[in-house]
Amino acid sequence: MCLRSPRNVVCIFLRAAFCKRLQMQITRTICCFVEDFLVWYQEFFCLSQLLPAAETVAVMLNHMTDITSSTHFSLKSGDAVALAVNNLGGTSVLELYVVVKEAIAYLESRGVVVEQVYSGALITSLEMAGVSLTLLHLDDSRRRCLNQETAAPGWPRQSWLSSYSSPQPIPAPASTTYTRLSTETAACLSEGGEKAFRRALLHACRALSQCDQQLNDLDCRSGDGDCGSTIRRGAQAVIEAISSDRLPLDTPSQALIDIGHIAEDTMGGASGGLYSLLLSGAAQALVEDVSPKAWVHALKAGMETLSKYGRAEVGDRTMLDSLDAAYKVLVKLLSDSHADPVEVYQQAVEAAESMARQTAHMQAKAGRASYVSKDQVKEPDPGAYAVSIWLRASYEAVKLGV
After folding, report:
1. Nearest CA among 242, 327, 234, 321 for reference residue 282
2. CB-based contacts of 243: which residues, under 8 Å, 6+ apart?
3. Residue 68 has pLDDT above 60, yes or no
């Protein structure tokens, strides 16, 4: 295909757009074919701040279509265009698709019909961080050329056509409806037991919220540094649910299922799913009995569910290590009918705290920490440490009611 005018196609290269503490450099690159030779010339300007994706795309396309420039790309409402979003080499697929989405949204907001979209590593420069945007006015001839079969290995085999309407967001329901157990058969707590359960949950969630930065710092050593923030979101959501009486705290089995759903919905990442598994597994052991011994069985059931679907074992340097240390102490309640549940719980908390500290010297075999050299991981596992935090807080709440 031969393009005889520089206004037919315009590229803008965005370099270092996703690199923190680096300047964002935008280069407008105009290309055209003259007597079958490809000619490139460039214009530069720099922005000293890092912008969100939507603003970055707006800056790029505004510069591209600036009518005060003699080389601007003429664009008006109703124009049909093809859009190419190119990975310059070091941009992640996730970031690339964010730019694709924002570019389509920006063009459609100006009344432009984006008929075809191509994305991928089309023109790269080793591992340069950034993307380039290319626009091409479409007519029947260009549509036919773009849709021809090609043996070029790097050319995207698929494009998005305007015949498919833009995705429309589905409004979130006013409230989330969770699976309900039969209230006729599920075991219930006494009035005092319900108050103790409420107090333990609130203490645990508040403690986790207050320790978010501490957990983030631990997670920076071996993960992505957001463990505390993730858990804090879930804890705050549980506090809100308790405050608005949306949790059936008199029925622990159902309450744990609901808290698991809240964790999965609000925490995100692996932590939300893992806590959902732990709580849903534990809930099954509390359907018929809510005695102290039943809670011990519930912890074991939750750990087994977590291990089965989370593909982690005790000793892998995860939250399971702290949970298992607590469980090994709590089993005294199953064999000694004279054991004081509160005293045993205190010992279990201390065991979990000790194990959390010991994870600093363990080889990670699961989670992101497993990809990091043992020599680089010298702090306790944040997941195991979080377990010790909420166990300690719940114990203090139980002790207050004794």
Report:
1. 327
2. none
3. yes
